[in-house]
């Protein structure tokens, strides 16, 4: 019985077993180069994987021309796909959910428009046209479209840096529409150019921190309405807002505060009930409209507008007026408008896509991210010329839509029609609606964005992600919304670069009785194989880490030698690099192998590579010095085979015994 | 005979073999969680791997205090390590090499100072003090220290953006010294803060493109001296320089051109001879000094300075005057100076470290990058207060040093003393040295930076790296030196991010007769295992790629199902993810597994993980839903074991046959 089969000698009792391993491992399998492909083929494959990972056109393959045309039209207008099969039964579901989200959309529309420093009516306009566009172009069945809190906040605060919404309301409105145009253009381009993955750079941790920070900023802004303050700071940060609030205590109006607290408690209670029982979703869905009606009646009955309670005031009746003549493509504010469009575009896209994906996963259908981006983008471009500001799929509203049983995008149409009716006939009713109730509606809506359990979960799973989240949160609260976001994204990317720059290398040992090799520091029963140092490199090798890897591996070898000196074991003969996890190398990586091989030769060790992947083999072959690695005894398919085969050569080679 | 052992049924002839595999694979090995470590321990280990990968203090461990003090002093001043063993034999070698590099350093020092728009004498000052400092602090035995061409070019061109070296020479000199101070401070800080890996972001491809571009820019600047033009553009780009040259043809001086061509041919010939035979290194090493002497004599003999040949003019005798009173830490140019210090600091550091590592590898000793950075940084800080500008280890001079047989840093001392003698006694001799010969010396020196074979090699190995190289090259030539560099670094980092965003997933198949599983598209003899889809994920899973991975894996499954439909094979039951290459996950990665498991359940497939690494197991465990992955039949140590064990359950489970 030869004891060298798997490099350990503990199991001599189990002869049969050993015999087997020997047969299995002594048959050495060759590492072969991958099949040849031209540079063009490789480029094509790489581009496809990068930009068309979901292969969106595969259903077109091998179809007749007519079928292709139909599929093409369905691809561009998903309504053609589900429209022909639409039934009365589906419509019944959609009409219920459409009316439910309309009851939520009307007060929220007015509130969010005020958050964006825009006239309240623009919020209603934005709940009329975009849902219709989305119903035709969108592929999600649950998304409820309209203005959202965070995009409204960012749009309002960024534009206010240059133009005052009170002193120059027309210019502010023009800038808002132009911003919407650029946001839509940017969103549609991302989708069209298949660059949708850019939104993936907003990690979950970043978003949770960002959302919580933004919710607090939004809520702080509502202190103006909730306390009835007339002179309020124009800044957004925690410190200036609180300073402003407590410097103007003389402006606090007890009537407003009383009303605000009552409605806030009512709304939060309704929210709590719906969260406890999903079936009672309509309680929180209907509560805002109930509040608006009730508060309007109260103001009207008591003439409270004369007792320190500010009201919305007269709203113009009628549908969206055209606004393409209000888009400003020149002038000194263009830079700001483009930047604001970019930030609001990305943020609202992130929300819309995330919402779409969440509900698609729940109902087990797929949403094409890039196609969805085009739909949202076109919706905003159309919106910008019909007096709408930035809209997207809102999380809270889509959840209500889903719970209310929406089956298709027709629920958006129903909501849109309801808003249309409101715009045409019901606008005078809002004249006495107090601003304080809008503030309460906003606070209730954004409070759900603060997700403490998710934050705790992140703390438990990944401390670095928690750091990212905290930076986003604190950055948003203390610096500014967009800078907080930028800092968090920067830190997230820095982590990735750090992982690349400092890849893990682990020492492998043999799990006794097998030819499996695993991390010695993880699997305590794994054993070192005398004479071998087996290292696994767990990252692509490139310019950012080749110098580190060389240094780190040399340290592994030195430490190994020092330990062997202590134990007076047999001296090291082979350094085996397990390459299964090295998915790519670049020219620096190739140099790394050349240099490292030379360094090993100088030390008198043999360098053996195990299971290099296709790209690595190719690149090593193309470099001149790779010939070294084509010798059969320096390239193996598994660690087990390498150890078995090389152990046997030690015995036949007297020189190695010195 | 059970045919389910390794999932393939081709080798029924080899019964013994099969029997073995069965025994080997049916014994299932558990995936165990890694040993527990506290967050603090993990943070400590991570920080150590990030900032102290080479564990520089390990020699201190377990030593008595006195020994520790000695080791500490030797660590800070490497001269204490090799100084006591210094012998006459070593000194003989060092004196020869020291004199050789001095003969190169004197003309190069004068030339490079002119390239930096500084007085020629500053170049000699910079070859006197810094080598002495390096000899005490540096750990490389071959580095020859002094001013270098590219750092000189960048310093001169960046400072000239704000201050004219001809109109305001004193201010320009002050800014140059201050820049040197900041460069040194920056270099020393990088070393001290263990952030040396920052220079790794200049990949080989970037450097080759950048060096070639810079060499061309430097050579173009020499057209002024070589053609004898007096009115020369102050811009650096290819286009403005050539325009300037051909707009001033009337200023061309035939005497200068004739002299320039003669010496250029001579120098290039000398370079060619030395490149052919390494033993004749002294030909190219001595040629510049020979040219300077010869040309000075010619000018002196023919009074050529009156015939259109411009000469250096009078140079002040004496050693470096102190210059700490010339450092400007306030004023309007501070921003420029800091920026220039940063760029020249990084660039000269990159050259110095690369040279040190190259020769250390040749002679098989190690250079501690971070320590070396501190040495170079302190050398520049000292230099900035003794009238020196930015210096580092120069490649060409170090190569000459190495070839001339330098044994220790004493060769730098010998060079320094020779320069001192020159400064004290020989300065009047340079009065008649023509500028044209300095131009020829610079061109000959930088021409070696254009490395066509390396560029071809990069083209052969990696097309993307070639793109990076071309961008660096074209950017330097057509835009500016620092922007070209920034573009190339940006593209390099973009590639890394792209690799992370679009990680490879490959389908594995069984290599018949083994329990080895490899990429089906690489190993043509690998076979699919009916009922299983085995995918290997080849990257860490994080926020940037979790959405992509889900989409891509779902497409693998769909394609697989479509193919199975065509072939009417047994339907898919298990999706196995081989995780050996997933070195890390973050909270988005954890969510990916939760979502993906749910998606698989909806489709009726079982998700099985194979060999998740320590960090992945830990994080999955810490998330609440990970319980799913603790079931014994969803976690295996090898693909072979998973397939063998799950194949047997298929038979015992009637539900799966439907």
TrEMBL record, chains A, B:
Keyword Transmembrane set for record: yes
> Which superkingdom does the taxonomy of this entry point to?
Eukaryota
**What's its membrane topology?**
Multi-pass membrane protein
Q: Which UniProt keywords apply?
A: Membrane, Sulfate transport, Symport, Transmembrane, Transmembrane helix, Transport
Q: Which Pfam families match?
A: STAS, Sulfate_transp
- Determine if Membrane is one of this entry's keywords: yes
The molecular function terms in GO held by this entry are:
secondary active sulfate transmembrane transporter activity; symporter activity
Kindly state one GO CC term assigned in the UniProt record: membrane
Which CDD domains does the entry link to?
Answer: STAS_SulP_like_sulfate_transporter
User: What sections of the protein cross the membrane?
Assistant: 118-136, 171-193, 205-232, 252-269, 281-302, 373-396, 408-430, 436-459, 466-494
The record ties this protein, via InterPro entries, to: S04_transporter_CS, SLC26A/SulP_dom, SLC26A/SulP_fam, STAS_dom, STAS_dom_sf
Where is this gene product found?
Answer: Membrane
Q: Where is this protein chiefly located?
A: membrane
Question: What sequence ranges are listed for the domain STAS?
Answer: 522-646
Matches recorded under PANTHER family: SULFATE TRANSPORTER
Annotated NCBIfam families: sulP (TIGR00815)
This protein is called: STAS domain-containing protein
The uppermost taxa in this organism's lineage are: Eukaryota, Viridiplantae, Streptophyta, Embryophyta, Tracheophyta
């Amino acid at each position: 019985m030869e004891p060298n089969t798997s490099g350990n000698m503990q199991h001599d009792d189990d002869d049969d077993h050993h015999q087997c391993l020997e047969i299995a491992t002594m048959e050495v399998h060759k590492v072969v180069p991958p099949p040849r492909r031209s540079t063009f083929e490789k480029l094509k494959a790489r581009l496809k994987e990068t930009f068309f990972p979901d292969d969106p056109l595969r259903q077109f393959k091998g179809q007749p021309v007519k079928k292709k045309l139909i599929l093409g039209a369905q691809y561009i207008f998903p309504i053609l796909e589900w429209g022909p099969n639409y039934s009365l039964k589906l419509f019944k579901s959609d009409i219920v959910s459409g009316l439910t989200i309309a009851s939520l959309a009307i007060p929220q529309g007015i509130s969010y428009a005020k958050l964006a420093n825009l006239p309240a009516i623009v919020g209603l306009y934005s709940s009329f046209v975009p849902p219709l566009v989305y119903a035709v172009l969108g592929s999600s069945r649950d998304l409820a479209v309209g203005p959202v809190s965070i995009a409204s906040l960012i749009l309002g605060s960024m534009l206010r840096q240059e133009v005052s919404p009170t002193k120059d309301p027309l210019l502010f409105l023009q800038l808002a529409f132009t911003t919407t145009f650029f946001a839509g253009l940017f969103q549609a381009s991302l989708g069209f150019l298949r660059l949708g993955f850019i939104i993936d750079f907003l990690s979950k941790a970043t978003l949770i921190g960002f959302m919580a920070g933004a919710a607090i900023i939004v809520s702080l802004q509502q202190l103006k309405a909730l306390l009835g303050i007339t002179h309020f700071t124009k800044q957004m940060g925690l410190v200036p807002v609180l300073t402003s609030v407590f410097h103007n205590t003389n402006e606090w109006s007890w009537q407003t505060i009383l009303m605000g607290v009552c409605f806030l408690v009512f709304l939060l209670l309704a929210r709590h009930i719906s969260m406890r029982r999903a079936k009672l979703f309509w309680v929180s869905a209907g509560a805002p409209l109930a509040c608006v009606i009730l508060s309007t009646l109260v103001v009207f009955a008591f003439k409270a507008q004369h007792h320190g309670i500010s009201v919305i005031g007269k709203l113009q009746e009628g549908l969206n007026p055209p606004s393409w003549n209000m888009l400003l493509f020149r002038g000194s504010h263009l830079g700001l408008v483009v930047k604001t469009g970019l930030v609001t575009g990305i943020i609202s896209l992130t929300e819309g896509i995330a919402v779409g994906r969440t509900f698609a996963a729940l109902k087990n259908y797929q949403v094409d991210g890039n196609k969805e981006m085009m739909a949202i983008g076109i919706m905003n471009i159309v919106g910008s010329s019909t007096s709408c500001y930035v809209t997207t799929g809102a999380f809270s509203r889509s959840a209500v839509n889903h719970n209310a049983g929406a089956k298709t995008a027709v629920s958006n149409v129903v909501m849109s029609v309801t808003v249309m009716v409101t715009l045409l006939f019901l606008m005078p009713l809002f004249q006495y609606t107090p601003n304080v109730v809008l503030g309460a509606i906003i606070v209730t809506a954004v409070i759900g964005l603060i997700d403490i359990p998710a934050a705790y979960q992140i703390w438990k799973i990944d401390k670095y992600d928690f750091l990212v989240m905290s930076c986003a949160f604190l950055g948003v609260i203390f610096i500014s919304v967009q800078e907080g976001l930028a800092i968090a994204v920067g830190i997230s990317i820095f982590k990735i670069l750090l992982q690349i720059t400092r890849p893990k290398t682990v020492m492998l040992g043999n799990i006794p009785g097998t030819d499996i090799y695993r991390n010695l520091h993880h699997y305590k029963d794994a054993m070192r194989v005398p004479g071998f140092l087996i290292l696994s490199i767990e990252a692509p090798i490139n310019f950012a880490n080749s110098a580190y890897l060389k240094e780190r591996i040399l340290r592994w070898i030195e430490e190994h030698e020092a330990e062997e000196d202590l134990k007076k074991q047999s001296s090291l003969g082979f350094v085996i690099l397990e390459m299964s996890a090295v998915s790519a190398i670049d020219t620096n990586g190739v140099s790394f192998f050349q240099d490292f091989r030379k360094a090993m030769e100088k030390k008198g060790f043999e360098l053996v590579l195990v299971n290099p992947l296709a790209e690595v083999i190719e690149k090593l072959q193309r470099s001149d010095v790779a010939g070294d690695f084509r010798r059969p005894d320096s390239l193996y398919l598994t660690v087990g085979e390498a150890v078995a085969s090389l152990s046997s050569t030690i015995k036949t080679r007297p020189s190695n015994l010195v």
